[in-house]
What we know:
Helix content is 25%, strand content 27%. By secondary structure, it is of the alpha/beta class. The protein has a 7-stranded mixed β-sheet, sandwiched between helices. A hairpin with a 2-residue loop joins β6 and β7. It is globular and about 40 Å long. It starts with 27 loop residues before the first helix and ends with a strand.
Amino acid sequence: MRVIAGSLKGRRLISPSPGDLTIRPTSDKAREAIFSILEAWPKGPFLDLFSGTGAVALEAHSRGFSPVCCVEKDRGALALLRRNARDTTVEIREGDALRLGPEAFNSLGFVFGDPPYAHSAALLEVLAARIHGWLDPCGLLVWESDARTELQIPAGFESIDRRRYGAAAFDFLRPLP
């Protein structure tokens, strides 16, 4: 696993131990495809919820998104995230995404959510209103789930794209006014 492009291009990232199924990093191929799509959007503040190793956040940071913030509660993932984010300005918040209130963020350009696949649809439903409040009106939510999961588009959002890469699907959602 590595950073694909930008100022940190080629930087090797520490992966979970083989067999550790609690952390599921977004693949290099999927990250490259997502950020190719995001090139059409102005760079801005970037939030990576359920950050895991921080691969997506570090890719965003490397490509000029700023500021970049990660939220992660799993101690094992946090250890990897902290090591991977060393010598960067990526902010790391230890905690549960479900405990973040409406005031936690504002005017974000992007929110990337990659929760455990088994809970992806339910977590989107629970967090959608808060995420909507955190996003800039021209912002974008990218939600990762198992490719077999068909997400219900939450109130306050419209779907602008859905992409599948291997076992993962990525829904691109724009907040409605």
